[in-house]
């Protein structure tokens, strides 16, 4: 597949990127280089290869999934401009 200048202009418009007319040949060339690289990747045999998220084997740190209240009520309310009886206090907006 080859990208011409008209297609490059259309892609730039869809991506909402302003590209001057004199820069379209270079953009089309870059798109063609990207597509060429993708075609090279399609030639790689990946049958039997499991997907991975890192080149080094590692496990994510896990914690027990338990519900807690956070035990930080005073710390959270200390940031509030007005707090009363353990809650945020806000001005009345409905009469």
TrEMBL record:
Biological classification of the source: Bacteria, Pseudomonadati, Pseudomonadota, Alphaproteobacteria, Rhodobacterales
InterPro entries, sorted: Asp/Glu-ADT_sf_sub_c, GatC
Similarity comment: Belongs to the GatC family.
N-terminal signal peptide: none
UniProt-listed Enzyme Commission number(s): 6.3.5.-
UniProt keywords, alphabetically: ATP-binding, Ligase, Nucleotide-binding, Protein biosynthesis
General function of this protein: Allows the formation of correctly charged Asn-tRNA(Asn) or Gln-tRNA(Gln) through the transamidation of misacylated Asp-tRNA(Asn) or Glu-tRNA(Gln) in organisms which lack either or both of asparaginyl-tRNA or glutaminyl-tRNA synthetases. The reaction takes place in the presence of glutamine and ATP through an activated phospho-Asp-tRNA(Asn) or phospho-Glu-tRNA(Gln).
Top-level taxonomic group: Bacteria
Protein name (database record): Aspartyl/glutamyl-tRNA(Asn/Gln) amidotransferase subunit C
Underlying gene: gatC
Catalyzed chemical reaction(s): L-glutamyl-tRNA(Gln) + L-glutamine + ATP + H2O = L-glutaminyl-tRNA(Gln) + L-glutamate + ADP + phosphate + H(+); L-aspartyl-tRNA(Asn) + L-glutamine + ATP + H2O = L-asparaginyl-tRNA(Asn) + L-glutamate + ADP + phosphate + 2 H(+)
Assembly notes: Heterotrimer of A, B and C subunits.
Keyword Protein biosynthesis: yes
Pfam families: GatC
Top-level enzyme category: ligase
